Amino acid sequence: MRELTLHSPHEDCTYRLGFKLGTLLHPGDILTLQGDLGAGKTLLTGGVARGLGIPPEVLITSPTFTFINEYEGRLHLYHLDLYRLSDPEELETLPWKEALFGKGVAVIEWPERLGEDLPEERLEIRILVTGDTTRTLIFRALGEALEARLETWRVELTCT
Fold it and tell me: What's phi and psi for 36, nearest 5 deg?
């Protein structure tokens, strides 16, 4: 397991970190986002979406009531928001397994709601609110391939 901690002084920086991350992702990558309500999980996902080549006219919103939004870009993006999920069986009518085990990229907000179904290999991103606009993002790679990639991303994941 490898970790990388980054500080974001404002929302634009958080968005740009997401954008850069989106340019670096591979098919099958899974990102889990943890943080309080309003921490910037959907903002970061919007940056990831643009980095994946999803056009700016496509609105990136949190799928709080539908659980999954899908977007087409360089890679297919599955955006899951499990905040309102009370039982993983609620997902059985949705393409959640395709999202997690397919050839696209999955971004999961409130991943702990998946319980044992959460894939072991993933990039965990914890967003800590440190001020009105400041955030600390802690990236934690789980799995050898992601650990190696996170090491190479240390230089690339910046707000500049």
Answer: -65, 165
Rg, the chain, Cα only? 14
φ, ψ for residue 138, nearest 5 deg? -110, 115
133 within 8 A of 10, measured Cβ to Cβ: yes
Domain range holding 122? 2-156
Strand order in the sheet with 68-71: 2-8, 135-142, 122-129, 30-34, 105-109, 77-81, 68-71
- Domain total of the chain: 1
Segment 21-73, tens digit of pLDDT: 999 999 999 999 999 988 999 999 999 999 999 999 999 988 777 788 999 99
CATH of the domain at 29: 3.40.50.300
